């Protein structure tokens, strides 16, 4: 994210914030997880493939949280690179969209009107997927944190300022109120990478 906590511009287009050294770090992370997850908003905005760019290891299982099965049939994630794809949808997703996407990915129905992330992750766990890396946008990140489903947060802060009241941040959603309390994360590591800094946080167990 940027110095001011943004992950994109108000136009919600992909922005390069970190350098090659950080990209290599992210590739290494992908090689040490069972799956990588994004929300459909990221698919629609950036069309990522979520592949391991270096080719150092097999692609992890690629997972999309997509309540209404809006993932385009020509999305890179469905076609680029080898490996399993999974799309989490809700019972509210149109059947014709589910059938079309099932040609390219395993469909897991979890939740009635929106994806039940806890149920979806439980099914992934049943399939042997224990370690999930999330490269989602602010909405998916918010939902996972709200549900208490995040163990660690890794934030790379690059030396740019993006600004914009409508620009997405690392965690968007409804936000927590002062009365309900805030999730607490302990700082476990700080490291300079290129022109930025990597912070690693671990969820505080209560």
Automatic annotation (TrEMBL):
Keyword presence, NADP: yes
Domain of life: Archaea
Documented EC number(s): 1.1.1.302
Signal sequence residues: none
GO biological process, one term: riboflavin biosynthetic process
UniProt pathway annotation: Cofactor biosynthesis; riboflavin biosynthesis
Coiled-coil segments: none
Annotated family: Belongs to the HTP reductase family.
Name recorded for this polypeptide: 2,5-diamino-6-(ribosylamino)-4(3H)-pyrimidinone 5'-phosphate reductase
Organism: Candidatus Syntropharchaeum butanivorans
């Amino acid at each position: 994210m940027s110095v001011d906590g943004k992950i994109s511009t108000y136009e919600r287009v992909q922005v390069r914030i970190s350098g090659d050294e950080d990209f290599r770090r992210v590739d290494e992370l992908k090689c040490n997880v069972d799956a990588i997850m994004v929300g459909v908003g990221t698919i629609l905005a950036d069309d990522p493939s979520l592949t391991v760019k270096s080719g150092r290891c097999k692609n992890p299982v690629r997972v999309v949280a997509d309540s209404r099965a809006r993932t385009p049939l020509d999305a890179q994630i469905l076609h680029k690179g080898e490996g399993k794809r999974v799309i989490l949808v809700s019972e509210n997703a149109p059947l014709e969209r589910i059938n079309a996407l099932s040609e390219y990915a395993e469909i897991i129905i979890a939740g009635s009107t929106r994806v039940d992330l806890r149920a979806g992750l439980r099914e992934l766990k049943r399939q042997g997927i224990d370690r999930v890396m999330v490269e989602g946008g602010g909405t998916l990140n918010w939902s996972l944190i709200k549900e208490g489903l995040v163990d660690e947060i890794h934030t790379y802060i690059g030396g740019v300022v993006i600004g914009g009241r409508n620009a997405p941040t690392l965690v968007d959603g409804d936000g927590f109120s002062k009365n309900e309390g805030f999730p607490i994360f302990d700082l476990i590591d700080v490291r300079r990478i290129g022109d930025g800094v990597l912070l690693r946080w671990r969820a505080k167990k209560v």
